[in-house]
Design goal:
Order of helices and strands: HEHEHEHHEEEEHEHEHHEHHEHE
Number of helices: 12
Strand order of the largest sheet: 4-5-8-9-10-11-12
Number of strands: 12
Structural class: alpha/beta
């Protein structure tokens, strides 16, 4: 707390940097991120009873660097011995395990974060499709019908695990298909239409692109806020199930009042009921239907689960709430 107070009083937010060997909790991490500092994660991440894993799981991928602090703070397997630079791999491996990604994803993200901060490197080429967690994700749009307090969509320098997500214009169906085919690797498990916005605002385009990609023989999933029927003025589930194998709906609230407060939908009070209705229709379709909610302070995951589990065909799971850089 003393260090953060000093940085605030000295105007360190105008400079930025790395908060080396971070040892705080989530509350301190929020303060550090608001100063524009990256957070340095080292060997203590691997220690037994460390509180760093919960913090590391919630950090924006664009704000993490990995470090060793050698000859100090070795990872658990070398505890009590001299630390070495090569041991940074064990920090990266633990970070990948905590965040349910591959080590390659951590390497790509932390290398980009380091180069952007210390060398002012910026990749101007926007990623329409990108590989992550052995999947290929399609960056459909930044347009959304929600304005969630936990979303970074309003920022103009969003990177995700080293990928540039800052769409200037929405990609065409042909561009989406070409980008997926270029990004798909041999061990790719599924193709996911998502983005920082709501894909169902571009229904015709995603249906066309997903239809073209059916020939790849991979499952195709849609990540959505569940307002597609409301957005398009009709039940779009029959159209979706012709090309999508799975649909994942972000619920993020246990009732309409909480949804209004956290998700701030353009449709107002109609939005939450529309999401529940979409879930019911999607769960009754041929698509696999999963529903998620973030473990935010105001979200009651148990109530969300009890709301969704009685819907036959719908599966619920909670997700870690990651700190948003513009969170309110």
């Amino acid at each position: 707390d003393d260090v953060i107070d000093i940085l605030v009083s000295e105007g360190a937010d105008q400079v930025g940097g790395i908060f080396h060997a971070f040892s705080g909790g989530v509350e301190e991490a929020v303060k550090v991120l608001k100063l524009g500092f990256r957070i340095g994660i080292g060997g203590p991440l691997t220690y037994r009873n460390s509180r760093l894993p919960d913090v590391a799981a919630r950090l924006p991928s664009q704000m993490i660097v990995v470090e060793t602090d050698c000859p100090y703070l070795p990872p658990q397997r070398y505890r009590g011995k001299r630390n070495e630079p090569s041991y940074v791999r064990y920090v990266a491996e633990k970070l990948a395990e905590i965040r349910s990604v591959d080590v390659d994803d951590i390497e790509r993200a932390t290398t980009m974060n380091y180069r952007r901060l210390l060398h002012d490197d910026h990749d101007d080429s926007v990623n329409i499709a990108y590989g992550l967690k052995n999947n290929v994700y399609v960056n459909v749009t930044n347009t959304c019908t929600n304005h969630c307090v936990f979303c970074d969509r309003r920022r103009f320098d969003n990177y995700l695990y080293g990928y540039n997500m800052n769409l200037v214009t929405d990609p065409t169906p042909d561009e989406m298909v070409a980008a997926v085919r270029e990004s798909a690797a041999g061990d790719c498990r599924e193709i996911v239409f998502c983005g920082y916005g709501e894909p169902s605002t571009r229904l015709r385009e995603i249906l066309e692109a997903a239809g073209e990609l059916k020939s790849a023989g991979l499952p195709i999933r849609l990540n959505t806020n569940g307002q597609g029927n409301l957005i398009n003025g009709r039940n779009i589930v029959p159209e979706l199930e012709r090309v999508f194998d799975r649909v994942s709906v972000s619920l993020n609230a246990q009732d309409a009042q909480t949804y209004i407060r956290l998700c701030r939908p353009d449709a107002g009070w109609k939005a939450f009921d529309s999401v529940i209705d979409f879930i019911r229709k999607a769960a009754a379709s041929r698509m696999e239907c999963s529903v998620t909610a973030l473990d935010c302070r105001e979200v009651d995951l148990d109530v969300c689960r009890k709301l969704i589990e009685p819907i036959r065909g719908a599966v619920f799971r909670g997700r870690k709430h990651q700190i948003a850089l513009c969170e309110e």
